[in-house]
């Protein structure tokens, strides 16, 4: 068992609400709760999660040279996030040298102000997206997908989407941390620079026929997707991981004492395969377990 330290990342759309989840700045847009990739690597004591995994991957249920395949974070948006898409498995393998692409799921702690996010193409073709890029207006090209607090929204790789202002979410994604931006509202940073767009790659990997999967995700619910399984549970007395691969238990609310360490909202505990850990206190948590499906498609 490892208790992971959070990593804060400021964003142009960041929000002070993330201070309740370990953020270090009023402009933090993402608090990484569990990550083990180059550049975003959860601290563990005097080392990092990536370092531990690289030393003994099999102890985590991984094969040699495999990275831990999921990233867990908390995101809060004071303004709309960029219109974007993530690579599919095939595109990531062919163009980015990665073993898999990037799907993701959002659990809404607080719904966006508008009551919806952008997700899915209105038309099942890329033409309307190309027109939207030219016009710098995606209102007619993307669906306004309704969401509310405690909804879970799964976005397959290759789906155009955009988190809208006011949303506060728990996010889980595959660890191919690649985003292709289609549009960023011509915003500039504090130095007056616009963020880069990646239109060619975005259009190449986009699947305009993709559909979102939405479900209510109250405590006691489970959700299974091709890259990971999720369980929303009120934890007390103990936390168990019955899987053959390390799983991530992330605190949404409440506080628990684990191995004499206080674990508060925003923090994750990495449970080793088949491990059970005793806890004091109670907390509302999401347990995320990776599915190493990519081993079957290589």
TrEMBL record:
Q: Where does Zn(2+) bind?
A: 86, 104, 161
What terms describe the molecular function in GO for this protein? mannose-6-phosphate isomerase activity; metal ion binding
UniProt KW Metal-binding keyword: yes
Needed cofactors, names only, are: Zn(2+)
Q: Where is the signal peptide?
A: none
Q: Which UniProt keywords apply?
A: Isomerase, Metal-binding, Zinc
Q: Where is the active site?
A: 181
| InterPro entries in UniProt | Carb_Metab_Reg_Kinase/Isom (IPR051804), Man6P_isomerase_Firm_short (IPR014628), RmlC-like_jellyroll (IPR014710), RmlC_Cupin_sf (IPR011051)
Cofactor annotation comment:
Binds 1 zinc ion per subunit.
Keyword 4Fe-4S assigned to the entry: answer is no
Spell out the PANTHER family in the cross-references. Answer: FRUCTOKINASE (PTHR42742:SF3), TRANSCRIPTIONAL REPRESSOR MPRA (PTHR42742)
Q: What is this protein called?
A: Mannose-6-phosphate isomerase
Q: Which organism is it from?
A: Absicoccus porci
């Amino acid at each position: 068992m490892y208790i992971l330290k959070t990593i804060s990342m400021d964003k142009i759309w960041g929000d002070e609400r993330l201070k309740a989840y370990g953020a270090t700045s009023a402009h933090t847009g993402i608090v990484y709760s569990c990550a083990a990739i180059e550049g975003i690597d959860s601290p563990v004591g005097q080392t990092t999660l990536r370092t531990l995994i690289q030393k003994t991957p099999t102890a985590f249920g991984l094969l040699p040279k495999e990275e831990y395949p999921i990233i867990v974070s908390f995101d809060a948006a004071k303004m709309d996030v960029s219109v974007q898409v993530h690579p599919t498995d095939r595109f990531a393998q062919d163009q980015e040298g990665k073993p898999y692409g990037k799907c993701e799921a959002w659990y809404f702690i607080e719904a966006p102000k508008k009551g919806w996010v952008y997700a899915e193409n209105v038309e099942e073709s890329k033409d309307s997206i190309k027109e939207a890029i030219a016009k710098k207006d995606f209102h007619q090209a993307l669906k306004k997908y309704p969401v509310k607090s405690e909804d879970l929204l799964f976005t397959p790789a290759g789906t155009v989407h955009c988190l809208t202002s006011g949303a506060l979410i728990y996010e889980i994604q595959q660890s191919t941390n690649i985003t292709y931006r289609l549009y960023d509202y011509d915003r500039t940073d504090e130095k007056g620079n616009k963020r880069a767009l990646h239109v060619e790659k975005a259009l190449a990997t986009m699947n305009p026929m993709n559909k979102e999967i939405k479900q209510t995700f109250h405590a006691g619910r489970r959700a299974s997707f091709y890259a990971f399984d999720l369980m929303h549970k009120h934890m007390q007395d103990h936390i168990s991981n019955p899987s053959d691969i390390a799983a991530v238990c992330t605190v949404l609310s409440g506080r628990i004492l684990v191995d004499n360490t206080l674990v508060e909202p925003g923090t994750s505990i990495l449970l080793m395969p088949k491990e059970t850990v005793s806890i004091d206190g109670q907390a509302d948590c999401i347990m995320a377990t990776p599915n190493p499906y990519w081993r079957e498609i290589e």
